[in-house]
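Thanks for the sequence, V.! I ran Mobilization protein right away. Repeating your input here for the record:
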Amino acid sequence: MGFVVLHMEKAHGSDSGTTAHIERFIIPKNADPTRTHLNRRLIEYPNGVKDRSAAIQQRLEEAGLTRKIGSNQVRAIRINVSGTHEDMKRIEEEGRLDEWCADNLKYFADTFGKENIVAAHLHRDEETPHIHVTLVPIVKGERKRRKREEQTKKRYRKKPTDTVRLCADDIMTRLKLKSYQDTYAEAMAKYGLQRGIDGSKARHKSTQQYYRDIQKLADSLKAEVVDLQQQKETAQEELRQAKKEIQTEKLKGAATAAAANIAESVGSLFGSNKVKTLERENTALHREVADHEETIEALQDRIQTMQADHSREIREMQQKHDKEIADKDTRHKQEISFLKT
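Predicted structure:
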């Protein structure tokens, strides 16, 4: 059996860079343009909604939120689902890809609420078929901090417990993330996919079990590397988008600066504020580029570390197995020698 891939990541703002990657406004370098027509939008947008970013915004506007959304607040959660490369290709060749997509949509609708799943895109133009799901983290109930505060003081008026809130932290607690991995693997078991290894304990293994474990570790690594590579490609796409925006802002800044110079020559000050605004936006974009570059570097380091750890674990398993075989052979020879005496 192969392994499932389920990766969840918080997104800020309109997440336009990821939208450009998912919607294929820009074709990434790792995609095969001859297969891009095989990609599919699994959830149709409502009338007037043009893309994923607009779908996120519409859900926020229609959710009935009572608190203002903060500038740094998480507005969407990116979810990437797939499986071990060989198994996803097998599912594709067996003609079960549509069924796999439908089961994925059902799982996320049942888990997070259909109304909160605002976008889902199947990509078949990259190496391994996968789905990008977009979740708007709308939850109900009191904030955990307020609930704790109210437990330590008297309530003078009863407050509703079904308040609609935007809160990614409620969805992405450590226990819930583990639960998603478990329940998602159960939902995908019918396709010959299982949860990745969550840790292992040393024990005596037969030769057959040893090689089965080696293969299981290799498959698990492949699934994790596929996930990390996709994260890296998304980050690279966002980086390209941010650099493009910087170039656009530079051109705007040059034009506005020229206008400001002309305006100043006749005693007008209207242009200065625009220049300062553009400078601030330009600085913010440069910070975004730096953040994306750090993310890409961190992902690359993580991939290399994972591969090194995997190789080390394989060597350790081999050494342990060889020692067990040698010890067993020694004991066998001693028993034979004892019987002969």
